[in-house]
Specification:
Structural class: alpha+beta
Strand order of the largest sheet: 1-3-2-14-13-12
Distance between the termini: 30 Å
CATH superfamily of the largest domain: DD-peptidase/beta-lactamase superfamily
Shape: globular
Largest sheet: 6 strands, antiparallel
Helix content: 25-40%
CATH class of the largest domain: Alpha Beta
Number of helices: 13
């Protein structure tokens, strides 16, 4: 297997780790992309893309990395003054039942709507109006704002509906008009049919892979929020590798991208909010995107997690079993991982953005050793750029 693409000599260790992923860590098809000061320093890909070679323009399902795109849409509106994150959701979405729930609670996984309570009919999540109506009427699993728990499948509909109410555009349309179009990203929240030939399907983790606390609770307690999350999805997980799913709008988990698309979405955020004449947000909004909002025990994942307003923060949990560990980043960094190990983030202190995607999923609720090895190598190469007193360390 030959790795293709380009890699600046200062980041040779990233290429070495990427090659080691294929040789020793079970990688089958993947890409990694890194920018520093707005310039591409790593753009590598290789392996199998569903029976054909992975190419420069290959796309794949990035699962919860999609949440980063959805959150960014909300922050674009907030930066313009069109959306107040500290306002009640009902200001923008009057039908929403949680009168005390703030927009910020939706972004920080504090809304208590982490799964659908009522049985989801087949294909429900493809019906935006029906899903948002169900969530608006649902009793929360906990008092909004008092605790946090990962809203794995509902985050996109909750935040995306606020984006729709404020902007007048559907989430995918807003993202294309305001983010992916101006930046020319390889990233879609609703994949055009003519791009189907570029898709590499995602593959499940190898048999015998470690199982997370979430999955163990779901099996042990069929009525738990964890069980509802995994089983009451209207058949989404089972159909995720189909054209029907890729054509729909799933603001939590439906994004299709490559490593370049992920890294270049975060590139403006690593540079104060703008790049090459495209300003997404102002510098104050970038600081808000990085600031921790929720931290501690996660009511859904059942391990400690940390979130800013819409983005994952470093939560190494290195003492936990591999399937329960999060991603380790520098403290300023913010972004999102996707089920199986994909990852995109910005690290403003280093003026760096990162993207990694793959076909063969790994275990865990964050990235696994393949993605973390690449993150570690990038930070080691950038050690001299980090703020004094805040060096990168594991």
């Amino acid at each position: 297997m030959t790795v293709q693409g380009t890699c600046h000599e200062d980041f040779a260790e990233v290429r070495a780790e990427f090659e080691a992923n294929f040789a020793h860590r079970g990688e089958e098809g993947a890409g990694v992309h890194v920018t520093v000061d707005g310039e591409t320093v790593v753009d590598l890909w290789g392996g199998d893309a569903g029976g054909r070679p992975w190419r420069e323009d290959t796309l794949t399902h990035v699962w919860s990395c999609t949440k980063g795109a959805t959150a960014l849409c909300a922050h674009v509106l907030a930066s313009r003054g069109d959306l107040d994150l500290d306002a009640p959701v009902t200001r923008y979405w009057p039908e929403f039942g949680g009168a005390t729930t703030l927009v910020r609670d939706l972004l920080a996984h504090r809304a208590g709507l982490a799964a659908l309570r009522e049985p989801a009919a087949p294909g429900l999540l493809r019906d935006w109006a029906a899903t948002t109506a169900a969530l608006a009427a649902q009793e929360p699993f906990w008092e909004p704002g008092t605790r946090h728990g990962y809203h794995a499948l509902t985050f996109g509909h909750l935040v995306g509906e606020v984006v729709r109410r404020v902007s007048g555009l559907g989430l995918a349309e807003f993202f294309e008009k305001e983010v992916s179009g101006p930046l020319a990203l390889d990233f879609w929240l609703r994949l055009p049919e003519d791009l189907e030939p570029l898709v590499a399907p995602t593959l499940p983790p190898p048999p015998g892979s470690p199982v997370s606390s979430l999955y163990r609770r779901a099996v042990a307690e069929p009525g738990s929020v964890q069980a509802l999350l995994l089983t009451n999805d209207g058949g989404y997980a089972a159909s995720s590798n189909t054209r029907e799913a890729r054509a729909a709008e799933y603001g939590s988990v439906g994004g299709m991208a490559n490593a370049r698309g992920l890294a270049q979405m975060y590139r403006p955020l690593a540079l104060g909010g703008g790049y090459n004449g495209v300003r997404l947000v102002d510098e104050a909004q970038v600081a808000s995107m990085s600031a921790v909002e929720s931290a501690g025990f996660d009511e859904v994942l059942l391990v400690p997690t940390r979130f800013s307003a819409g983005f994952m923060k470093s939560a190494g949990n290195g003492h936990l079993p591999p399937a329960d560990r999060g991603v380790v980043l520098a403290e300023d960094a913010f972004g999102h991982s996707g089920m199986g190990g994909s990852l995109g983030f910005a690290s403003p202190a280093a003026r760096m953005s990162f993207g990694y995607v793959m076909t063969r999923m790994g275990p865990g609720v964050g990235v696994n050793e393949r993605g973390q090895s690449l993150v570690d190598a990038v930070y080691r190469a950038l050690g001299h750029r980090l703020a004094p007193g805040g060096p990168w360390f594991r």
